[in-house]
Amino acid sequence: MTHSPPPDYAGKIVAGRYRVERLVGQGGMGSVWAARHLTLKRLVAIKFIHPQLATSREALRRFDIEAKAAARLKTRHAVAVHDHGVTIDGEPYIVMEYLEGESLEQRLARVGRLSFAEMVNVISQAAKALEAAHEQGIVHRDLKPDNIFLAGDPDAPAAGYCVKLVDFGIAKILEGEAGALARTETGVVVGTPFYMSPEAFTGSSPVTPASDIWSLGACAFAAVSGRVPFPGEAIGEVVLRVCSEPLPVPSRLVPELPKSFDAWFRKACARDVGERFPSAAAAAQALVELDSWHLGERERSAYELRPSDRAAADELPATGSSRRGLVLGSALAGASLMLAVLGYYVLERTRAADATAAAVAASARAVIEAENERKLREAEAHFWSQQDAAGPKSERARRPAPVPSAR
Q1: Is 142 a catalytic residue?
Q2: What's the distance, Cα to Cα, between the start and end of the chain in Å?
Q3: One of 83, 142, 291, 309 is an active-site residue; which one?
Q4: What's the whole-model pTM score?
Q5: CATH number of 13-97
Q6: I need a labelling partner for 208 at 20 to 30 A (CA). Which of 43, 120, 362, 404 fits?
């Protein structure tokens, strides 16, 4: 986005205490200049509102909110506000601490993407600023890589910078000072669509600290993948994807990312507000202790029964191990039935075999008895033929002797 050049404030004295030196940068709301305190010689940054917005009540309200919101934060991870007011020329200004370094957006444009360890360092520090803001009843509402500043700090361990959260221009102060969702005079939702939560677009639920947690998750995704979660050429396309498309899986884009980060991102950017991390601090702690957090989540998913379900648990047929017991019992009952059927079959077959064997034995005895009787008759016939050949005998002698029956 291009901006018209701001007025040249170099050499201007502000509030009788600060001399403006040089332009540092500019954005949609105004320009930021380096200035020096006249007596303390301390370098500060002064933000001026764009002259064309100086007559806009909405722009002036947002400028005032930025000053008040940032001034309420007592954390080294949010840019400090020293003063604010209006110049004698009627130009609103905010005096802030001077930061040297680059934004996360600039870092990503320069290096492509961060290592996983560096992303954890940046996001966990940004979460500290969010937690401090949420404790003060402030929702940032425009968290994005361009508003996460990596300020040079020689005392910072390892990385050499301290993460500072900047630009609370569209922050929502929950006491009501910021009002409803801010919109520009043309009706466009203020904020960066690529990092905005679904409820910030649709109004399906109020914009709360949970909305910043969504944005924090989106920033973490962008930091390690080098791209936004839901790209698009037009705001309507982005809104549609944010509200309806499945969340991307980070490890599919960058295979070396841990699978547990997929689960963290899925929870941080859950479309159901109630399923997100309960606080920015909880999100940061889970990210720092990712493996143990993921293990705990898996165990809770497998074994935890929510209190609202306990009363109905006894009425359920069977779940988990009880269902496995029911299946095992059914299998055993089926096996017992099969054994009973098999036993009955074997018994019947045995009875049939016994009957067959008895019939065969009876038939064999009948055959043997018939054969014996035949042989006796043959022997008797042979005997009498021998007697006839020997000569006449008395009638009594010729009388055949009785033959006992084989039966």
Answers
A1: yes
A2: 127
A3: 142
A4: 0.69
A5: 3.30.200.20
A6: 120
Report domain extents, the chain: 13-97, 101-304
321-348 as b/e: b if 16+ CB within 10 A: eeeeeeeeeeeeeeeeeeeeeeeeeeee
Confidence of residue 333 (pLDDT cuts 50, 70, 90): low
**Nearby residues of 69 by Cβ (< 8 Å), 6 or more positions away:** 133, 136, 138, 168, 171, 173
Q: What is the largest CA-CA distance in the chain?
A: 181
- In this model, does residue 104 exceed pLDDT 50? yes
If DSSP codes are grouped into helix, strand and coil, which group holds residue 190? Answer: coil
- 7-16, 162-171, 214-223, 321-330: which range is least confident on average? 321-330
Task: Decide if pLDDT at 352 tops 60.
Answer: no
Q: What is the pLDDT of residues 201-213, one digit of tens each?
A: 888 788 899 999 9
Looking at domain 101-304, its CATH architecture is Orthogonal Bundle (1.10)
Q: Provide long-range contacts, Cβ within 8 A and 24+ apart, for 202-210.
A: 202/243, 205/273, 207/139, 207/141, 207/172, 207/181, 208/139, 208/174, 208/273, 209/130, 209/134, 209/139, 209/279, 209/280, 210/273, 210/276
* DSSP-H helix ranges across 90-205: 104-111, 116-135, 198-202
For residue 49, pLDDT beyond 50: yes
- Single-letter code of the amino acid located at 308: S
